[in-house]
C-alpha cells in the first residue's frame, strides 16, 4: 500500500502528549472482563475481540502506555542510543584495527599482501551477509536477544587471531566475526526508529550514522602502534576482544527490547498466562501474519534485492553510499602504500595519517544540528508533515566535496609534495562521507517508513560487497597506475555519483509518488494494492516506527 504523510502526522501529534497512535483500544472501568495487564496500569484495558481462538483479543498500545518505547524518558532513550552507537563503532573499529599490524602478521605467517588484505575484505563482506539472517530473527524474537547473542559470539571469534597460527584460521574467524558483528549495523537503526519520531531522531541517527566511519579511522592508529611494541600484532586482536566484550556487557546491562511488535507479542502471552489459558490474546501486528521462521526468512532475505531491482531511490542511494564507504576501506590498502612504502612511515605513523579523516567525521557530526534545523523549518512550512527531501541539504554539499577531496589526495600523494598535504585532504573526505551517510540514511528512513529496514538493508548489502572488492584491487591499481591515477579512479566514481542527491532533492517527490512503498505527499488514506510475495505480509500492519531493522 502507499504510505502517506498521514502516518507521520499522527505519530507527531500523539508524541506531543507522550502517546502513540492507537485506534483500537480504550480504557474501561474495573468491572470490565479480565483481559487487562494490571502489572503496568491502574485501570484495566478492554481489547477488541472475544478472547476465543476464532476471535482473540487484539493487544495494542494504550494511550500514554509506559511500556511503549516512544514514551520512555529521554534519559533512558539517549542511554540506549549511545550504547547502540558504540556497538556500531566497535564493529567498525575491529574491521580496521587488524590492518595496523598487517605487515608484521604477513611476515610472521608468510602471507602475501593480498592474502593479508583478505582479512579486511572478508570481514566487511560479512557485514552484507549477516543482516539477511539477523534482521528477520530480530522481527521474530526481538532486537535485544539478537544483539546479545551475536555480540557474545562476535567477541569470541577475535580469539582466532589472538591464538591462531595459520592464515586459514585468521581469515575464517575474521569472516565469521564480520558476519556476527553485523547485527548493530542494521538492527541498531531499527531500534532508534522504535524510540524516536522523525522530528526527534535527527541527532540520534546522525550519531549512529557517523559511528561506522569513526571506528575505521581509529582502528589503524591503535593497531599500528601496538604492532611496533613488544606486544606485537597479536595484541591487536586482544584489544578487539576486550572492546567487543565490554560492548556486549554494556548491551546486556543497558539495552532492553525496543521492537513494538515483539513487546506486544510478549504482553499477549503474559495476559494469556494470567488467564490460565482460558482467554486468547494476539498482538495486532501478528493478526493474519505467519510467524514461521522459515516463512519470515524467505520473505525478508529476498526483500532487499527486490527493492534494489524495483525502487530507483534505493538503487541509486545504495550505489552512492557503496562508493563512499568502499573508498574508505580501499584506503586501508592505499594508505600503507602512500605513506609507509613511498614515504617510509612506520606502521604507527601510517595509522596517524587517518586522523585527517577522523577530524572530518567529527566536523560532519557537529553539523547535524544545522541539518536538523533546516529539516524542522521544512516541516513547519508544510504543516508538520514529513518532508524527506529536507534531509538532503548536507548530502548535496557532501556530494560536491567528496570528489574534490579525492582528487586533492590523488594528486598530492607522491613524495615531492609534503606529507601533511594528503593527510589534510582526508579531512574534507571524512566530512563528506559523514554528511552523505547521515543524510541519505535519514532520507531512506523517512521515505520508506515501515519498509525502511528493507531499504537500508539493501544499502548495507551493496556497500559490503563493493567494500569487499575495493581493498583487494587497490594494490594492483596503485602498482599499475601510480598513486595519482589510482586514487583518481575513486574520485571519478564519486564525481559520477555527485548529482544523485541533487536529483532526488528536485524530483524525489515525483519519484516517491510512483512507488507503492514510499511515502507520498498527499493526505489520502492508503489504498490496498496487490503486492509481490516478498512484501505481501508486511502490508497487513501499519506500524509507523519501524519494520524490523535498519542500517
The dominant shape is globular
Average the pLDDT over all residues and give the rounded result: 81
Which stretches are poorly predicted, pLDDT < 50 over at least 5 residues? 1-44, 523-551
Radius of gyration: 24 Å
Relative strand content: under 5%
Number of strands: 6
* Main sheet specs: 2 strands, parallel
Q: What order do the SSEs take from the amino end to the carboxyl end, as H and E?
A: EHEEEHHHHHHHHHHHEHHHHHHHHHE
Q: Assign a percent range to the helix content.
A: 55-70%
Overview of the structural elements:
The protein has 551 residues and is mainly alpha-helical. Helices cover 68% and strands 3% of the residues. The protein contains 21 helices and six strands. The strands form three sheets. A two-stranded parallel ribbon has the order 1-6. The protein is globular, with a radius of gyration of 24 Å. Residues 1-44 and 523-551 have low confidence and may be disordered.
Compact description:
This protein is mainly α and 551 residues long.
How would the blueprint of this fold be written?
Blueprint: E1 3-4, H1 5-15, E2 26-27, E3 45-46, E4 57-59, H2 74-100, H3 102-109, H4 113-129, H5 131-141, H6 143-157, H7 159-163, H8 167-180, H9 183-195, H10 202-228, H11 234-254, H12 260-274, E5 281-283, H13 293-310, H14 312-341, H15 347-352, H16 355-366, H17 368-381, H18 393-410, H19 420-448, H20 452-497, H21 499-513, E6 519-520
Parallel strand pairs: 1-6, 4-5
Antiparallel strand pairs: 2-3
Helix pairs in contact: 2-4, 2-9, 2-10, 2-11, 3-4, 4-8, 4-20, 5-6, 5-9, 5-13, 6-8, 6-9, 6-11, 9-10, 9-20, 10-16, 10-19, 13-14, 13-20, 14-19, 14-20, 14-21, 16-19, 18-19, 18-20, 18-21, 19-20
Amino acid at each position: 500500500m502507499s504510505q502517506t504523510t498521514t502516518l507521520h502526522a499522527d505519530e507527531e501529534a500523539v508524541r506531543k502528549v507522550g502517546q502513540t497512535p492507537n485506534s483500537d483500544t480504550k480504557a474501561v472501568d474495573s468491572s470490565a472482563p479480565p483481559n487487562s495487564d494490571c502489572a503496568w496500569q491502574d485501570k484495566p484495558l478492554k481489547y477488541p475481540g472475544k478472547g476465543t481462538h476464532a476471535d482473540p483479543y487484539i493487544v495494542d498500545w494504550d494511550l500514554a502506555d509506559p511500556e511503549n518505547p516512544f514514551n520512555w524518558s529521554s534519559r533512558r532513550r539517549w542511554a540506549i542510543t549511545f550504547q547502540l552507537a558504540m556497538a556500531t563503532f566497535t564493529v567498525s573499529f575491529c574491521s580496521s584495527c587488524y590492518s595496523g599490524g598487517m605487515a608484521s602478521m604477513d611476515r610472521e605467517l608468510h602471507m602475501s599482501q593480498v592474502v593479508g588484505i583478505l582479512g579486511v575484505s572478508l570481514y566487511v563482506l560479512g557485514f552484507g551477509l549477516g543482516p539477511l539472517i539477523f534482521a528477520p530473527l530480530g522481527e521474530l524474537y526481538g532486537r535485544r536477544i539478537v544483539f546479545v547473542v551475536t555480540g557474545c559470539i562476535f567477541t569470541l571469534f577475535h580469539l582466532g587471531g589472538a591464538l591462531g597460527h595459520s592464515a586459514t584460521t585468521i581469515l575464517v574467524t575474521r569472516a565469521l566475526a564480520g558476519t556476527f558483528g553485523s547485527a548493530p549495523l542494521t538492527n541498531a537503526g531499527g531500534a532508534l526508529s522504535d524510540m524516536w519520531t522523525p522530528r526527534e531522531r535527527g541527532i540520534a541517527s546522525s550519531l549512529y550514522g557517523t559511528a561506522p566511519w569513526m571506528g575505521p579511522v581509529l582502528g589503524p592508529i591503535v593497531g599500528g602502534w601496538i604492532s611496533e611494541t613488544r606486544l606485537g600484532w597479536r595484541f591487536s586482536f586482544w584489544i578487539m576482544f576486550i572492546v567487543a566484550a565490554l560492548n556486549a556487557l554494556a548491551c546486556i546491562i543497558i539495552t532492553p527490547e525496543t521492537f513494538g511488535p515483539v513487546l506486544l507479542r510478549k504482553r499477549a502471552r503474559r495476559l494469556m498466562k494470567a488467564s490460565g489459558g482460558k482467554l486468547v490474546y494476539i498482538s495486532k501486528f501478528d493478526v493474519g501474519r505467519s510467524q514461521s521462521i522459515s516463512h519470515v526468512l524467505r520473505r525478508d532475505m529476498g526483500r532487499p534485492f527486490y527493492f534494489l531491482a524495483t525502487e530507483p531511490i534505493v538503487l541509486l542511494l545504495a550505489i552512492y553510499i557503496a562508493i563512499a564507504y568502499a573508498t574508505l576501506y580501499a584506503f586501508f590498502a592505499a594508505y600503507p602504500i602512500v605513506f609507509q612504502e613511498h614515504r617510509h612511515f612506520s606502521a604507527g605513523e601510517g595509522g596517524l595519517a587517518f586522523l585527517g579523516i577522523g577530524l572530518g567525521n567529527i566536523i560532519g557530526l557537529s553539523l547535524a544540528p544545522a541539518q536538523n534545523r533546516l529539516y524542522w523549518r521544512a516541516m513547519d512550512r508544510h504543516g508538520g508533515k514529513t518532508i524527506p527531501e529536507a534531509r538532503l541539504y548536507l548530502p548535496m554539499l557532501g556530494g560536491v566535496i567528496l570528489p574534490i577531496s579525492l582528487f586533492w589526495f590523488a594528486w598530492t600523494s607522491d613524495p615531492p609534495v609534503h606529507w601533511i598535504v594528503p593527510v589534510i585532504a582526508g579531512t574534507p573526505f571524512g566530512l563528506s562521507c559523514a554528511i552523505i551517510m547521515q543524510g541519505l540514511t535519514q532520507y531512506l528512513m523517512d521515505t520508506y517508513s515501515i519498509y525502511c529496514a528493507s531499504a537500508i538493508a539493501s544499502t548495507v548489502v551493496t556497500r559490503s560487497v563493493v567494500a569487499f572488492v575495493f581493498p583487494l584491487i587497490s594494490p594492483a591499481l596503485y602498482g599499475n597506475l601510480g598513486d595519482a591515477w589510482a586514487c583518481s579512479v575513486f574520485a571519478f566514481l564519486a564525481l559520477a555519483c555527485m548529482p544523485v542527491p541533487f536529483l532526488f532533492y528536485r524530483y524525489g517527490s515525483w519519484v516517491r509518488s510512483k512507488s507503492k512503498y514510499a511515502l507520498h505527499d498527499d493526505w489520502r488514506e492508503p489504498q490496498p494494492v496487490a503486492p509481490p510475495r516478498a512484501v505481501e505480509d508486511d502490508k497487513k500492519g501499519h506500524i509507523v516506527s519501524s519494520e524490523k531493522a535498519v542500517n
